[in-house]
Amino acid sequence: MAVSIDNVYQQVLAIANKEQRGYITPQEFNLFARKAQLEIFQNYFNELDFFLKRPGSNDTVHADDIDSIREKIDRFEVFDQYLVPDPVTVQHTLPSYYRMGKIYYNNAAIYLQVNGAVNNGATITFDDPNADNGIYNSSKGLSVIKSSNGQDLGVIVSQTGSSITISQNTNLEDDEYVTIMPHRNHKPIEFKEVELIPQNRLHYYTGSDKLRPSTKFPICVKSTTNSKIKIYPQSITQGVVCNYIKRPSDPKWTYVVVNGKALYNASDAGHQDFELHISEEGTLVNKILELAGISLMKPGLSEIVLRNEQMKQASKNQ
Questions:
Q1: What is the CA angle 89-93-96, rounded to 5?
Q2: d(CA 37, CA 274)
Q3: Quick one: how far is CA 99 from the chain centroid?
Q4: 149-161, pLDDT tens digit by residue?
Q5: How far apart are CA 103 and CA 91, in angstroms?
Q6: What pTM does this model have?
């Protein structure tokens, strides 16, 4: 469950008005909300590192702290994100991420061209005359991925000749490509980890008889912009996935103006609640008040935050 952005905004306004510190506009609030959420999110990793290194971290009392932080981070973990291949540069495009996790490739993934457009249908026919070789065993939970953008189209439920039926309707253009690969539940049997190495170590691997990358022990390096990876050996071109931690989406309190007053509008297309754990609601309120006090030169707001944090800490120590 996420934190309602309207709940936080109303609390911030109520406290600011109670202390006669002035009105915080929606535009100001959205700026403070984005910064507050990002600071809290980034601090999770520092806290986790601290708790893991603290003596006695295996005791039950300390494990509760570790589990709590991990639960908050888990909300942002994404597994088996398909990486869109670029046949020209022989690279794979990474998703927008905060921290990259493991990278895998599937040695049974196949790349097939669609024969005939699919308009809101569940049956796909392929040009490849070998597409009826029985590799599409539905018991293996094979996923069908749109190769151009990584969209998961569903799993195969049946096959007739060179045509397959998937679990949901989709739209594909004639001659478009799809990738067929086993579901992640089949790791590590059919998925092999791709070791991510620093760019300056690449020549040690490619120039060594013992370390030279192979399909059994592949490696990859990131591009200079960290937005793509290049895999070695370069014969690995399909079926690459990754796990990663995404950044939280920017929160946005959306509104309509009625009689000169901003009224909350949750149905606006740009609306976005906080993505942090529900337990962070109070921390968000305090952090936004602190940022407002600094930015708007209202030091009284920062004093309110200090009192709130002292009361919160005293409650935890009881």
A1: 150
A2: 7
A3: 9
A4: 999 999 888 888 8
A5: 14
A6: 0.82
Pairing of strands 219-222, 191-196: parallel
Cα distances (angstroms) measured from residue 36 to each of 47, 132, 216: 16, 54, 44
* C-alpha distances in Å from residue 270, one per residue of 8, 75, 250, 251, 267: 17, 21, 10, 9, 8
Measure the CA–CA gap between 273 and 271, rounded to whole angstroms: 7
Yes or no: say if 15 and 307 are a contact pair by the CB < 8 Å rule.
Answer: no
Q: What is the dihedral of CA 171, 244, 96, 240, to 10 degrees?
A: -50
Cα–chain center distance at 281: 21
pLDDT at 77 > cutoff 60: yes
- The two tokens of residue 118 are 């699919």
Distance, in Å, from the CA atom of 65 to the CA atom of 50, rounded to the nearest integer, reads 10
Dist CA 166 CA 153 (whole Å): 8
Burial of 9 (0-12, 13-18, 19+ CB in 10 A): buried
Residue 64: φ, ψ to 5°: -60, -40
Give the residue from 107, 32, 91 showing the smallest Cα distance to 295.
32
